[in-house]
Design a protein that fits this description.
Elements (H helix, E strand, L loop, with lengths): L39 E3 L3 E4 L5 E10 L6 E8 L16 E5 H19 L1
Antiparallel strand pairs: 1-3, 2-3, 3-4, 4-5
The protein binds zinc ion.
Length: 119
């Protein structure tokens, strides 16, 4: 008797991640239950140095496993890093997390302030 098996096409691993996701920082598919609240896709961080060599600003995108509700997170982090950057507690709780629309507004506000400040 002839049997045939229908194979599913191989899933491209990156198709399970938003295009901006950096697999180095992605915990969306962490396997341990302890990490269930920390399952996020994350982009590679954009880093802003400060006047303090031990303090740095990290800005990145993050989204839950289903990729919806993309947010921007900006954290003030202290060097040297003892854990992966996305797992660090921000310095004195200094962290902003906002949806893309608010980040867009903030971007315009910052640009206006910088322009005005340079007078
Ligand atoms: Zn991801």
């Amino acid at each position: 008797m002839h049997t045939s098996t229908t194979r599913m096409p191989a899933v491209e691993p990156t198709a399970l991640h938003p295009r901006w996701c950096s697999l180095d920082a992605c915990t969306a598919y962490s396997l341990t239950d302890a990490d269930v609240d920390a399952r996020y896709h994350r982009s590679r961080p954009l880093v802003v140095e400060t006047e303090d060599p031990f303090v740095v600003l990290y800005a990145h995108l993050l989204a839950p496993v289903d990729g919806s509700g993309v947010e921007v997170e900006i954290s003030e982090l202290e060097r040297p890093f003892t854990r992966p950057w996305y797992d660090l507690e921000p310095v004195r709780g200094r962290q902003l997390v906002m949806p893309l629309e608010r980040a867009e507004s903030l971007r315009h506000v910052l640009a206006s302030l910088v322009r005005a400040g340079r007078g």
